[in-house]
Design brief:
CATH topology: TIM Barrel
Strand content: 5-15%
Radius of gyration: 19 Å
Bound molecules: zinc ion
Order of helices and strands: EHHHHEEHEEHEHEEHEHEHHEHHH
Shape: globular
Strand order of the largest sheet: 3-5-6-7
Low-confidence stretches: none
CATH architecture: Alpha-Beta Barrel
Structural class: alpha/beta
Mean pLDDT: 92
Distance between the termini: 39 Å
Length: 337
């Protein structure tokens, strides 16, 4: 497999979640440090469970896992270790020099038992530690809102993102399974407020939902890029809208194929080549690397091996990822903001 050697080709990754980005043995160690009661005393069982090591995976399996990883990461110390390990590990093992992982602080405070600021500051400390050790790496954190949470709670997350915008939080996002009464329309004001405070915005759409829903989301929310959004390939007018708004789609091939939103490699080629022909910019990401046992170099090698994208197209997606970053690329370093 032609995986680029670390450092031979700088890579940028813009769409992956901290909850599913830690190596299982580190998650295991953090859980034990904090005395968290796990579903099994066996590391092998835990490893299989956390990496979805089974024949078929459902959308529900995916989200059931988040409960455990979020619980294990629910302390300032755990968040510091998590972000430190994720940022430094992605650089050391995959040569990723620019990364913007996302997490929802509200799912890491044990229903209000832990202080939200301490959780976010723990994450930022972990990022600073990693950047101090690897000064050529650029990173920023994205705070996730969730479609299951009431707007008042999501608004608190936006305000925290604004508060820490000068400390390394670079943007906001909405993720999670669709909750009762959730409407993207309700978030236009919060998105506008975040942008006014200098934050960038993205959103999960065009994945489990439809192309029509994605069009609506693009019409109501002010956006800088989109997470997933692959369903735009079904609608030429929507592709035109994505291109007109200069949005980059942060695609996750293995993630979409693992739950059969994209059926197989033929389907994946059709999706990506249609987006390419439609003038849509996109980049490749892992979404949940540890759970899906993948890395960005592996995703790129997989697309190369299957002839999904040619060499020039692969190179272009890497370039688009750097161009779509939220981290201020004009600064020489994002240390000590
Ligand atoms: Zn995602």
């Amino acid at each position: 497999m032609d995986i680029p050697k670390r450092g031979s080709q700088p890579l940028a990754e813009l769409h992956f979640h901290l909850g599913q980005s830690l190596e299982p043995h580190i998650l295991w160690a953090i859980a034990h440090e904090q005395g968290i009661k796990l579903p099994s005393k066996s590391y092998e069982d835990f490893h299989d469970f956390i990496t979805l090591n089974k024949e078929t995976t459902t959308w529900e399996d995916y989200h059931a896992l988040f409960h455990w990883t979020e619980l294990i990461q629910s302390s300032p110390v755990a968040m510091e270790r998590t972000v430190y390990e994720v940022v430094s590990g992605a650089y050391r093992s995959s040569g990723i020099t620019l990364m913007e992982p996302g997490f929802n602080p509200m799912y890491r405070n044990r229903q209000g038992e832990r202080d939200l600021d301490d959780i976010i500051l723990g994450a930022l400390r972990g990022m600073e530690r990693a950047l101090a050790e690897f000064p050529t790496v650029r990173a920023g954190l994205i705070l996730l809102l969730d479609r299951r949470l009431p707007k008042e709670v999501n608004e608190i997350i936006v305000k925290k993102a604004m508060l820490y915008a000068r400390r390394g939080v670079v943007g906001i996002d909405i993720a999670g399974p669709k909750g009762d009464g959730f409407s993207y329309d309700d978030y236009a004001d919060l998105y506008a407020m975040a942008r006014e405070a200098g934050l960038k915005t993205t959103v999960h759409t065009g994945e489990d939902g439809t192309a029509e829903e994605m069009r609506h989301v693009l019409e109501v929310l002010p956006l800088d890029r989109v997470n997933h959004g692959f369903r735009a390939y079904e609608d030429p007018a929507l592709m035109e809208l994505v291109a007109k708004k200069n949005l980059t789609l942060c695609l996750c091939p293995t993630s979409n194929m693992s739950v059969k939103f994209i059926r197989d490699f033929d389907h994946l080629r059709e999706v990506l080549q249609t987006l390419w022909r439609g003038g849509v910019k996109f980049c490749i990401n892992t979404d949940n690397p540890s759970m899906l046992k993948t890395t960005l170099p592996q995703e790129l090698a997989m697309l190369r091996e299957h002839g999904t994208l040619d060499e020039a197209q692969l190179k272009q997606t890497v370039q688009w990822a750097f161009e779509a970053a939220f981290v201020d690329r004009k600064r020489a370093s994002n240390l000590y903001l």
